[in-house]
Amino acid sequence: xxxxxxxxxxxxxxxxxxxxxxxxxxxxxxxxxxxxxxxxxxxxxxxxxxxxxxxxxxxxxxxxxxxxxxxxxxxxxxxxxxxxxxxxxxxxxxxxxxxxxxxxxxxxxxxxxxxxxxxxxxxxxxxxxxxxxxxxxxxxxxxxxxxxxxxxxxxxxxxxxxxxxxxxxxxxxxxxxxxxxxxxxxxxxxxxxxxxxxxxxxxxxxxxxxxxxxxxxxxxxxxxxxxxxxxxxxxxxxxxxxxxxxxxxxxxxxxxxxxxxxxxxxxxxxxxxxxxxxxxxxxxxxxxxxxxxxxxxxxxxxxxxxxxxxxxxxxxxxxxxxxxxxxxxxxxxxxxxxxxxxxxxxxxxxxxxxxxxxxxxxxxxxxxxxxxxxxxxxxxxxxxx
Length: 385
What we know:
- This protein is an alpha/beta fold.
- It folds into 2 domains: about 5-180 and about 360-375, 3-Layer(aba) Sandwich (Rossmann fold); about 190-350, Glycogen Phosphorylase B (Rossmann fold, 3-Layer(aba) Sandwich).
- The protein has helices spanning about 15-25, 50-55, 75-95, 110-120, 135-145, 155-165, 190-195, 220-235, 250-265, 275-285, 295-300, 300-305, 330-340, 345-350, 360-370, and strands at about 5-10, 30-40, 60-65, 100-105, 125, 150, 205-210, 240-245, 270, 290, 305-310, 325.
- The strands form 2 sheets. It has a 6-stranded parallel β-sheet with strand order 3-2-1-4-5-6, sandwiched between helices.
- Helix 3 (about 75-95) packs parallel to helix 4 and helix 8 packs parallel to helix 9 (about 250-265).
- The relative contact order is 0.14.
């Protein structure tokens, strides 16, 4: 049996953590030859230089593409992606994969999937059909879906959205999110070990924060974060652990503000990247998540931790019962914190299922890929509903 050559593309620390269970599953399948292409934010020191994590994991890497221009201005995203377009297109012509697998809605997926499109290489897209109206990710995600040939949405409603976009039903398989597959079975440090590693006091409730820029609206600014953190420090007794914003325009300003505050305020710690294992430990041992990261909506419910979702970035996305939506009003956010800490709210979310999956997504995806009809994969017919 000739093995199908699969490429899994990763360009950001967040999406790599979600892909790891799937990568392991594909590597265990004898019918596939699976390798990674690593790009973008993995080479950024502001993102924690997470190429080291990939190297340490020992996954086979077919190519490393360091195309990123650190985003201080919006046009740097286009320049970075233009460089990726050239290098990834050259890689495809030399490697000749049978399928390229991508996840999510990051801007660097546009040059990846468009290069595949023009070289007649099928694409499998994970997490399509979702809605995040407060960010340009929304348009990117839908564009990636239209250039893809197989779809693995997380939920039935997202499958319906793909059908409404004209995607054929046989190409779509509801898998759940692969990032949920191993988060509760990882070998995590103990609470004492985790807190000691980052100098966190065991005597205070831990709040995990991740803020990304709002590429539409831009209400998450350095001055907003300074005002918010000042209010939270004054009105709560919590310890705050922040991770870095992504490489979107405005992300570097957020990171610089958090780094500055961390240096000045003892109860604020800024770590650019915790890595998958320690980020899961933070969710397990933390009391509340705060910010506008998708992890608060997708992963946090599996740990039974409330998530305060701030602003419009995630507008339209499915919510678990743990999510408290709030505007960028400081007083409203402080009130949301006390709601999240209340026994009534915490008890109300305990033990309820996660709408994003049951922890079996990687097997579902691998099984579907193994059974697809490769002969008809490239010919897409629209069935607009």
